Structures are given as structure tokens and as C-alpha cells.
Amino acid sequence: MNVVIMGCGRVGARVAVLLDEAGHQVTMIDRLSASFERLPKEFGGNTVLGTGIDEDVLRMAGIDHVDVFIATTNADNRNIMGAQVARTIFNVPHCIVRLYDPVRADAYREMGLDTICPTTTISAMIMDKIATYGGR
After folding, report:
1. Which domains does the chain have, with CATH numbers?
2. d(Cα 45, Cα 130) in Å, to the nearest integer?
């Protein structure tokens, strides 16, 4: 698969490495060139400096031939906008968006974006862990 990831933070870089190791074509987009230092020397994908809500930057990343767009920046609005541009302008079939706000995650999930909300996921994991302690 061809994948574009917007946001080369810890999550984006980790996903990029895993996808690259699995043999997928990966392109990372980030606004800061220093972010690409999170990628190992062995990373076989591409990097594009810029913002993933800019159509020209997305074209440089090869968005016209992408199967999956993943937005992992730390900004919900930027992630939503990048995914909406990828889906509506470039007809990317699959968009995965990290959103910290659970209400927004639910709303955009209903609009057809695949959302992942670390707030909800981690809260559920903590509650599951607490349940294993027993007691009151």
C-alpha cells in the first residue's frame, strides 16, 4: 500500500517505521525538518517538509496515488483538515485521524473518517487495569 502520514512525532514516526518494515510505501509530512530525525537511517520511505493541509505539499507527497492517509499531529484541527482535504479533494479511500477530543472523534467518525482517540483508549485501559485489582 501507499501511505502518507502527516506528523512525524512519536506516533507518526513509529507507524511509519512499522509500515516501512512491512514493505509498504510510506511518505512522511512534517512542518519541522528536525522531526524527521525520529526516523532511523534504515527508513526506506520519503519525507516532505510542509503542512499536510496544503494541497501542493500533499501533491509532493504523492497523494494522488495513496491508499491511506494518516493524520497524527498533536493538533485535532490540523488532523481533521488534512484528512478532509485528502478525502474530498484527492479521493483518498482511507483516512485515519488521531483526535484527542472524544466528542469530536465521535462526530467525525459518523462523517466517515476513521478516528482514534487516545483519550478514550487510555481511559478505558486504565479502567480495565483498575478492575483487575479487585476490592471495592
Report:
1. 2-132 (3.40.50.720)
2. 40
